[in-house]
Amino acid sequence: MADSLSNKKRGGFTGRMGFILAAAGSAIGLGNVWKFPFEVADGGGAAFLFMYLIFCFVFCLPIMVSEISIGRAAQRDAVSAFETGKKSWNVVGKLGVLSAVLVLSFYNIVAGWALGYVVEILMGNFSIGEEFGTYINDIAKISLYAGIFMLLTAYTVSKGISKGIERLSKVLMPLLLSLMVILILYGFFLPHAGAGLKYYLIPNFANISLEVIYNAMGQAFFSLSLGLGAMITYGSYLPKNENIVHASAFVVLADVGIAFLAGLMIFPFVAHLNAGDMSDISGGAGLIFVTLPGGFESLGPGIGLVVGSLFFLLLSFAALTSTVSLLEIPVAYAVDKLSISRKAVVWFLGLFVFLLGIPSLLSQGDSAFLSACLSYLNSSESRSFMDIIEHISSDTFLPLGGFGIVLYVLFGWRKKRFHAELSQGYPNYVGSIWQRYLDFSLAYLCPVILSLMVLLTILDRFIGINVLKILTDAL
Ligand code: PHE
Question: Which protein residue has the closest C-alpha to ligand 1 atom 12?
């Protein structure tokens, strides 16, 4: 009785579209626009894309389906959802909540950088790219932008699922896609655009190494927001008559599609800036925050201002629909477990996670200690606080959580209940080709891939043994 009452109070998505947009909004984030294009370029262009797609469908989709069904079956937060069988399984959920808090603490800082760029470029400050190092160490400024970002996130989450998260996603996701299409079309007509597209898209199989394959796995997993209960939490608000398999496939396609479009959008600008010479461009964080502002400036002051600020606005939108999903994980846990009001929990947790991000903020150079606080075993390279949190949470805990989720489906929750949940909204699920494929992947592929990922990450990040490089050198 108490449960059904609290379920009514929990609220939920109004239907399929709201859920899909919110889940896609969680998946589509900084990972897609910031990281993906360069991983494609570094990893052999279209060859990487192909591999990435395979990973998304072969092992990420089954985990997404599992997460959403675990959540929907329980109609509870990401920790209680594991308590259907033996209670001890909930340690998987607890790890997820911890990961969500850690990931959000640094993700919010990077989102703050992006938001600040909108303002800087609107003020005509195109040299912000060259000043990036100074900018991210302007503690007052970044605290302000990251603070505003957390306020927006907390405000949305405080409004609940349908009036907060769903409404935001329904506005921002179409806006994100439209802005992207406009920037892509604009970029296509820039001089040297062709060189950029060629660089992005022509496959170069020679660039595919074991490390590139490992990166594609990690990127696929993070980009789909898996392993920390985001999809369990969103799934718990999904109506029973919706088809989980189809909704998941749609979310995966949307995530991959937007990541692909991000590359189409970015590389023509980069090529234009370098007059078509793509031999020497910097990757990673630098591409977006250091290189691109110069590309926008070269369009001319007026149009550069519009295109540049729209670009960073788009990046901030993508990040916002991800940060709300991260905050919702611990919020749902606290609301369901402690039965305290959503608003109180949201503002408390928002403040807590913001403060937790401060050491990451200071670890970009401002604090000498935090910027180089530890070097791992066997490595002389010192790591910043932000690096360490990222290595622990997104690199290690996420695949570990994913492994836990798969084990739970196989041995805790078990196939019968998993099938029964999926059959709701998909009456012919049992016996379908989807069922055979998902069962096979969950029983054989996912455990192997995820345990390998955890092992390789721990050896590489914390012990300094890069197994993949050793193997490549030996071959
Ligand atoms: N998927 C988001 C991105 O690509 C990040 C994220 C990870 C969001 C995990 C929620 C949970 O940026």
Answer: 29
CA distances in angstroms from 440 to 24, 51, 410, 445, listed in the order given: 25, 20, 11, 7
Distance 214 CA to ligand 1 centre (A): 18
Q: What's the whole-model pTM score?
A: 0.94
- Centre of ligand 1 to C-alpha 223, Å, is 5
- Asked if 117 and 128 count as a contact pair (C-beta separation under 8 A), the reply is yes
- pLDDT (tens digit, 9 = 90+) per residue, 186-244? 999 999 999 989 888 888 788 788 888 898 899 999 999 999 999 999 999 999 999 99
If you measure from the C-alpha of residue 260 to the centroid of ligand 1, how many angstroms do you get, rounded to a whole number? 16
Structure-token match 């059959």, residue found: 423
Q: Considering only CA atoms, which of 95, 65, 164 is closest in space to residue 330?
A: 95
Structure tokens at 343: 């608003």
Ligand 1 contacts (CB < 6 A) are 26-27, 29-32, 103, 222-223, 225, 228, 230, 322, 325-326
Dist. CA 99 → ligand 1 center (Å): 11
d(CA 227, CA 215): 16
Output the pLDDT for position 299.
83
Residues in the chain: 475
